[in-house]
Amino acid sequence: MYRKGIETMEIKILGPGCKKCEKTEKIVSAVVAEMGADAAVKKVTDMMEIAQHGVMSTPAVVLDGKVISAGKVPDKKHVRKWLENAR
C-alpha cells in the first residue's frame, strides 16, 4: 500500500463539470486505485472554491492543498509521478 500508516492524501479535481474535468477525475481515480494509494479524490465544481486556489484555468488538480496541474488533462504517467512524489 502506498502511504500506508500516513495521513490520507486529499486530491481535488477543480472544474465546472466539463468533459475535460470529468476525464481528469477518471484518470486520477484510476491511478489512485491502480497504485492502492491512500487518497480521497473529491470533485469541486464551486467556482468560489476554485478561485480560492488561485486557479484560472480548468481542469486543475490539487494535491494536499497544492495546485499541481491546471488547464490540461494529465496523463496517467504524470499522475503516478505526482502520487509517488507526494511523501
Report what the structure shows.
The chain is of the alpha+beta class and 87 residues long. It has one domain: Glutaredoxin. Helices cover 38% and strands 24% of the residues. The protein has a four-stranded mixed beta sheet. The radius of gyration is 12 Å and the shape is globular. The mean pLDDT is 91.
On the 0 to 100 scale, the average pLDDT is 91
Number of domains: 1
CATH topology: Glutaredoxin
What is the N-to-C order of secondary-structure elements (H for helix, E for strand)?
Answer: EHEHEEH
Name of the top-level CATH class? Alpha Beta
Supply the key terms:
alpha+beta, Glutaredoxin, four-stranded mixed β-sheet, globular
Write the layout of secondary structure elements.
Blueprint: E1 9-14, H1 19-35, E2 39-44, H2 47-52, E3 60-63, E4 66-70, H3 76-85
Parallel strand pairs: 1-2
Antiparallel strand pairs: 1-3, 3-4
Helix pairs in contact: 1-3
Concise synopsis of the structure shown:
By secondary structure, this protein is of the alpha+beta class.
